[in-house]
Known about the structure:
Blueprint: H1 18-39, H2 48-73, H3 77-102, H4 104-109, H5 116-146, H6 184-207, E1 212-216, E2 230-236, E3 242-247, H7 250-261, E4 268-270, E5 275-278, E6 292-295, E7 298-302, E8 310-314, E9 319-324
Antiparallel strand pairs: 1-2, 2-3, 3-9, 4-7, 5-6, 7-8, 8-9
Helix pairs in contact: 1-2, 1-6, 2-3, 3-5
Amino acid sequence: MSSSPTDDTAPPSPRPSWLLRINSFVVIVVSLCFTALALHALARTWDPLSFLLAPVFAVLPAYLGVLQYGGTFRRTAVSAGKVATLLYVLGGFLLFSAILLQGLGNIRAVADLASPPVLTLVLGIYLFWSGRLNREWSYRLADANANGREIAAGGEAEEDEESEEGEQRESESFADGVHLPLSRRDVAAIVASVVFVACLVVILISRMAPQFAEGVAASEVPLPLPAEASDVSYCLGAEGAAAAEFTIGEEDFRHWAARQLGDDGTLAPIQEEPRTVVRCYAFSKEMAGPEETEIHAGWFAQSDAIRHPVYAFDSETSRGYYYVPMP
């Protein structure tokens, strides 16, 4: 039996709109996906930094999802307010990132709607809108509390027939440090969330590329290699470091390297002084081979972009090299 205000003249308890419920469901699902994405990094045992940071980066999206559930479906003003604040912060970060990626003036003129700056801008605007939706909901709940209306958590509060006053629910949720009795729907939501995250983590780990491989196709390598590359050997190192080598034609390599470099560098011919390039064998003791190679004729460039990746081509062996050093 649902609890209701004893005063017939009191305004009805506020209920979330369908728009808020749908938006909350989207926020919760996306939060769970990011939680699973962070946790699956625990399988990167060769990268101590990823292994240590995975639980840290899993906390924020999980916390956001819990707050969103508490604010919308348990009708908690404090939770809804915290969700709004987090969404505002995330939206502002994405908008600032979009401006850094291409500049606001250029974003307006971008024809490719799927470009990273445009997608970042759109996502930032959505997070701001979602934050505003939650902020308005938190104001409604706070107003209801101020006017003395009883807000049932999810509409499933039950009266205690043996008590004269019945069970009174506070207007704060379990996400705010107040432990309220969980309804059947709450338990079902918790179980479904845990199962969803666990299944997604298993799927991500099963699709995760191994740390190293030799003689594979370019499509099997988790690095931005050219499609024309064949007989690829690669290895992933700690903190995002990586190295790969592959067979490729000289012209195909030069076109690919030029695209990758953009305005951050230019390929230069190797003529008088040879260039030393780190090979994939430097990142794993399980791979047998020399850790470096010298190129006497070919092409070389080191990008000015973040991480300063190296692009090199050996004309004598028709082997291309791609190397991302540790920070």
